[in-house]
């Protein structure tokens, strides 16, 4: 079995109030993150042991088989979860975007199930495992939130398997569905991934992925922007992608 990607050292952030520590009370993402239901008073102790990190492009948050050490809340950026086959071939099994969580298996498993790799620069908060377990015991609202996010992750995994990684749909249709999965919220921006990553997500060759993306670009369904952060995204014709994906018909109605 081929060895997974070598782990990259995670660079810690210097925060204004506490070096390397998260300030949950003033976080502008607090209402949508995992601990959104934890009260401000409870956070007085909670935030003192949550670490802030910046993971460089291609860096790993954790690797499959490593002992679980915590829950990782994504503040900015995107993370790909990779599973390696018995031959060492990588397969991207899920893409996790900002406001979501990776490493939730820490609560139930002694080791991580997948390798988590940063796509571009990623800012995360890491909640140490034992502290998180203690907080879950003390807060029924956090228990409910954890179950909700676990259910969401399961639904995304089922969608990934049924609509993207297999089935009878043509590669062109699955590509459109993948691009919609990679959409940045409700905007017309689509996160751009390498051809190798696209192939690993859909189980197709790099040549096939390149041909389909080139077709979408010629048709104007995708537009490449260059310079700064713009190069990380496609600008997309979302209705056109939805039609190609078989989600709507030519009139725009749900298929």
Give the helices and strands, then pairings.
Blueprint: E1 11-12, H1 40-46, E2 51-55, E3 60-62, E4 70-84, E5 90-97, E6 101-102, E7 115-128, H2 129-138, H3 140-164, H4 171-181, E8 189-191, H5 195-202, H6 206-219, E9 222-224, E10 233-236, H7 238-244
Antiparallel strand pairs: 1-2, 2-7, 3-7, 4-5, 4-6, 4-7, 8-10, 9-10
Report what the structure shows:
With 255 residues, the chain is an alpha+beta fold. Helices cover 32% and strands 23% of the residues. The protein has seven helices and ten strands. Strands 1, 2, 3, 4, 5, 6 and 7 form a seven-stranded antiparallel sheet that branches. Strands 8-10-9 form a three-stranded antiparallel sheet. β4 and β5 form a beta hairpin. The radius of gyration is 19 Å and the shape is globular. The relative contact order is 0.12. Residues 1-21 have low confidence and may be disordered.
């Amino acid at each position: 079995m081929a060895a997974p990607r070598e782990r990259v050292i995670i660079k810690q952030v210097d925060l204004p109030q506490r070096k390397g520590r998260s300030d949950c009370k003033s976080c502008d993402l607090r209402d949508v993150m995992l601990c959104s239901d934890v009260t401000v008073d409870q956070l007085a102790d909670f935030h003192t042991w949550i670490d802030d990190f910046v993971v460089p492009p291609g860096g790993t948050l954790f690797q499959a088989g490593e002992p679980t050490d915590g829950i990782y809340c994504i503040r900015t950026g995107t993370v790909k979860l990779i599973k390696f086959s018995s031959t060492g071939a990588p397969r991207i099994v899920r893409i996790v975007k900002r406001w979501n969580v990776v490493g939730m298996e820490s609560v139930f498993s002694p080791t991580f199930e997948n390798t988590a790799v940063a796509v571009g620069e990623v800012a995360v908060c890491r909640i140490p495992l034992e502290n998180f377990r203690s907080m879950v015991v003390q807060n029924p609202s956090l228990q409910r939130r954890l179950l909700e996010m676990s259910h969401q992750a399961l639904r995304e995994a089922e969608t990934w398997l049924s609509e993207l990684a297999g089935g009878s749909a043509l590669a062109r249709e699955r590509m459109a569905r993948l691009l919609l999965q990679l959409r940045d919220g409700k905007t017309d921006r689509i996160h751009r991934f390498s051809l190798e990553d696209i192939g690993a997500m859909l189980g197709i060759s790099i040549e096939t992925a390149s041909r389909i993306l080139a077709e979408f670009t010629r048709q104007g369904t995708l537009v490449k922007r260059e310079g700064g952060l713009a190069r990380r995204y496609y600008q997309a014709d979302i209705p056109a992608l939805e039609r190609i994906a078989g989600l709507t018909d030519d009139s725009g109605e749900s298929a």
